[in-house]
Design a protein that fits this description.
The chain has one domain: Trna Endonuclease, Chain: A, domain 1, CATH 3.40.1350. The chain is an alpha+beta fold and 140 residues long. The chain is globular and about 45 Å long.
């Protein structure tokens, strides 16, 4: 996963109207959330901490990337992970804890990724009026 960090502004479905991203995957997904007509709002500043046990020894708190609310009122937690990270023990422990946490609250948990064959490029950044602090264009 690319670890370029930055900030998007001009967001309409995010209450802060701007949000930081920690990877290109996160950035691309934030743009996708903005464009999805089924989504009412989304945020990274949700304050949700989900306790999980790592290796049966350590208790930690997991902070999911996104809280997403749909037009029908349903809510989901979404996590962006690069393909190699999906197989880490810590990722599996976080996912299991998040799935339980969401189920207990009538929510869903979703992992967002892209692999070598599933290459996502979003061509409508400028058309949506969204500004990227990095100010660069990706080339295929």
């Amino acid at each position: 996963m690319d670890s370029i960090k930055g900030r998007l502004s001009g967001l309409k479905k995010n209450p802060e109207e701007s949000a930081s991203y920690d990877s290109l995957l996160e950035r691309d997904y934030m743009i996708e959330l903005e464009q999805d007509p089924a989504i009412r709002s989304w945020t990274k500043k949700h304050g949700i901490k989900i306790p999980y046990t790592f290796l049966g020894l350590f208790t930690r708190n997991y902070l999911p990337d996104f809280l997403v609310e749909y037009n029908d009122g349903s809510k989901e937690l979404h996590e962006g992970k690069g393909l190699p990270l999906l197989f880490w023990c810590s990722t599996k422990a976080k996912r299991a804890a998040a799935q339980e946490w969401c189920k207990a609250r009538g929510m869903r948990y979703k992992v967002i990724t892209r692999g070598k064959q599933i290459f996502y490029y979003n061509n409508f950044i400028e058309n949506a009026g969204i500004k990227d602090s990095n100010n660069f264009q990706e080339k295929l």
